[in-house]
């Protein structure tokens, strides 16, 4: 499919010039960034399932083709391998985002409206930038010093079972004692182990982001620090002093360059959120997700004073889509409730983005639909279920995950109030594998509202 579309694009030029849109795609782990990008590109190359994208429905996208990305030092998003994983004879989920990557899709657009009779075509380049949401969490570090960050982290993790190993190791450390590299490495290793365990348990505040995705920085001093209780007296050469210095180096040499080189050039942004995963884990995970997403979305406040405003140079993200992923895990009758839950979860952060002038929307989507809907009798009533192929073992199974409330206010209040479990309901979750597909010519893989997401994000520019 990609090869056919690329062939159409050879030698094309735009009669009305070329417009480039930089679309940022982010979200925390398991939100589905890789699948979203793969599916978006596949369905723009073969547009039979994109009626909600007006330019596609009207036939004004004459051709779509992949081109070399514009940034030579950024890895290319491996679209072909990811598409093969999702649509091959043994479909499986591709490996998730571990670093920044980029892909350019060019669209040949026929003019519309008053320009339609003048002839000519134009080209729109869609540059899709994929980056881990955990890296955006680091933005919150920029306005904190080591003492503030350490205090907040240690307070937050004090009651978490996943942090027991790190807290035990921390009790053997005297922050006022002379710094020892081997001791620092061991403590940073314990902290990284805690972050991995917290991530696996469904927590979202797993930062600094590079501790989970270190890449070429693994083992470097800039990643060899950890939160400490502040000693009564701070002296040069102490463990506290050196780790505070490394914390500042992380902000200056890791966080700031990422925002300068990648984030500052984003025009439109989609933030993917695994709402159902957090609800399944429980109220604490939902409240944790709310705090983490507020930290992420603080990056999209272009009017914010300080270093970020200066770094962006007056640019702002024009549109932000908050997308609750895995909508195919719920019957469509609950999708509106899922959207309302997401909007309630992000309300304060979203209001700040609106105030800054960015246009925003919330939506429930499934970038790749992996289930079908069914109804089953249970306890004398009919319940709406979804059926799919289970990731573990591959057998078919139907799921009724529980009903989301009409209004999310009560659930969000429970989460904010520190409830240990939901008062009135249990929420199940299953891990579904991609369905085996038989695609007709001109159709991309099935999805839920991916076309409407595309219309909001860049349809106005087509």
From TrEMBL:
<protein>
    <submittedName>
        <fullName>YcjX family protein</fullName>
    </submittedName>
</protein>
<dbReference type="InterPro" id="IPR007413">
    <property type="entry name" value="YcjX-like"/>
</dbReference>
<dbReference type="Pfam" id="PF04317">
    <property type="entry name" value="DUF463"/>
</dbReference>
